[in-house]
Amino acid sequence: MTGGVKAGWRAVGGPPVEWDSEYLDLVRFGDPRYQELIQDLLTRKYGQGRRPVDMVIPVFPAAINFFLTHNKNILPGVPVVICGQLAGAHPNVSVDPLVTGTAMTIFSWDNTPLVLKLHPGTRRLVCVVGCGNLDRKIEALANDTVKAHPVNVEVAYLSDFSFKDLGEKIAALPPDTVVICLTTTRDNQGNPTLPRDAVAMVAQAAKVPVYSLWENVLGEGIVGGYLIRFEEVARKTGEMAARILKGARPENLPPVLVSGVPMFDWRQLRRWGISESRLPPGSIVRFREITLWEEHGGKIIAVILLLACQSLLIAALLIQRTRRRQAELEARQRRDELAHVSRVATVGELTSSLTHELNQPLTAIVTNAQAGLRFLLRETPDVMEVAEALREIAKDGKRSGEIMHRLRNLLKKSEIDQAPVDLNAVVREVAALVQADFAAAGVALTLDLARDLPLIMGDRIQLEQVVLNLLANGLEALKDLSGNVRTVQVITRKEDDGGVGLTVRDSGPGLSPEIRSRLFEPFFTSKARGMGLGLAVGKSIIEAHGGRIWAEPQQDGGAAFRFRLPAAGEQENEPA
Ligand code: ADP
Asked: Which residue minimizes the CA distance to atom 17 of ligand 1?
């Protein structure tokens, strides 16, 4: 209450003052002897100017009555601003010109029709009221009010109870009853209690709706009612006190009447099925249980949106992944096709090798067949020579067959094949294929192959294609150069890290920076009839084998192409 009084005081610009609080405890110890002692104590503390007092503010009926009776002895001439006098329909303030203040309409007439309206089947109102002095006064006020406004339901007062049997009595009330807790400071045995605890006891035991008069018991299980707000009473008192200190005369400030405000407990409204639309206008509903949606609606929407976005993102990523896989598949098919085309082109360029390779055994076959014939047609056929010629024919036929087989393999469009491959064997095979072209162009092809070369895992045909292209490029670079030493060298080495390295170097014009930066781009060519695919395809083949290919300038001119492949068992990722 003091807080409320001070707030009202400050609200109307009351000057700074010292506030002394005295707790009289008159409700519990209200006998005349005790009152005398208190009067004596206060007189000694404050009387005769010992501690100058500007104003006394007694709070609630017991203290108010005490001061209205004894103030003339304690602090004569000091104005009294009473806080929370009991009032029926009208404030019941003393006619003393030094006294004014606030009064509370305890049992507002509004309460009864409100209860009957909210509970239409009600046949009985039971007012629970204690046996203390204050309780009796409030009961009398309520009784006056009800008498002044008769209702056609039974109104009963339940005051003859001890706290021990109160719960039982309340629980036994018939269903068409509504309980109104007035105030309970003592039971019929004279046991004191806090009014709030008594209301809680009643509300807990009741099987019917319980109403009350005070805001401070809302939340203890009552439905509500026109409730007196102590805070408001205190604030209005503080305002009056400040005005008086600033010079207003108490007799010119008529007492202020504070009435109850319709207030309800949301949980109890739900319990008794009372719709808020039936409450009086301006009703205050407390203890509303905010639904998850009401409290976190924004966050819920945000989370839903987030989840939706996430789902969309996941869907988009899945679609993207599917598309990427599709694209990878297509790219691989295209690469295989390109590899095939490039192989056909390279083999096409090496026609002289092929013709030579095939011509040689075919010519030998023809020569041997003619020689055989001659040996047969002699007068004395030389069977041994014929047999030798036939053996040679068979050998050359077999050799042509092998060439055809090798060519067919090279030209066959195939998916990558995983098998252990000896890179030296690859080099020898390709060298055999191109040997005649090199010879025809007067270019020396030398092989420097490591003995301890580990096997690699991969597709022999594809690797042959890479080497074939590197050799064809070397030969191409040297073709039109004359005078110089014209060599292409193939070197294989076991690398320090266990991998396998291959270098093809030539004594050609080398690589200009411009060409070098674009070597591996598809369709980059500096040749009139070039396709610009050989190196690009070679790069994709080497990378698909988990390796790396690059070009290096040589100190003494010419170009060097190198690739490195992991040895079998060294590969971390399976080649695509
Ligand atoms: P293409 O041989 O059809 O042009 P490549 O991809 O095999 O396609 O080669 C691309 C280009 O790289 C060639 O056109 C040439 O300019 C250059 N190049 C490749 N190898 C050599 C080399 N040994 N010396 C000089 N230039 C080379």
From this structure: 519
Distance CA 194, CA 223 (A): 20
pTM of the model: 0.51
Question: Per mean pLDDT, which range of 271-285, 419-433, 521-535 is the poorest?
Answer: 521-535
Residue 493, pLDDT score: 96
Q: Which CATH class is domain 111-227+259-289?
A: alpha beta
pLDDT of residue 576: 38
Tell whether ligand 1 has an atom less than 6 A from the beta carbon of residue 469.
yes
CA distances from 251 to 80, 93, 237, 255 (A): 11, 11, 15, 9
Neighbouring CB atoms inside 10 A of 475's CB total 23
CATH superfamily, region 420-576: Histidine kinase-like ATPase, C-terminal domain (3.30.565.10)
Q: With the CA atoms of 422, 532, 513 and 476 taken in that order, what torsion angle do they form, in degrees rounded to the nearest 10?
A: 70
Q: What is the dihedral of CA 286, 291, 294, 300, to 10 degrees?
A: 160
- Cα 461 to Cα 95, 205, 414: the distances in Å are 123, 96, 9
Indicate if 420-576 has the same CATH topology as 111-227+259-289: no
- Residue 560, sorted as left (phi over 0), alpha (psi -120 to 50) or beta, turns out to be beta
E strand or H helix at 128: strand 124-128
Asked whether 536 lines ligand 1 (CB < 6 A), one says: yes
Q: Is 471 in the pocket of ligand 1 (CB under 6 A)?
A: no
Q: Tell me which residue has its CA closest to atom 20 in ligand 1.
A: 473
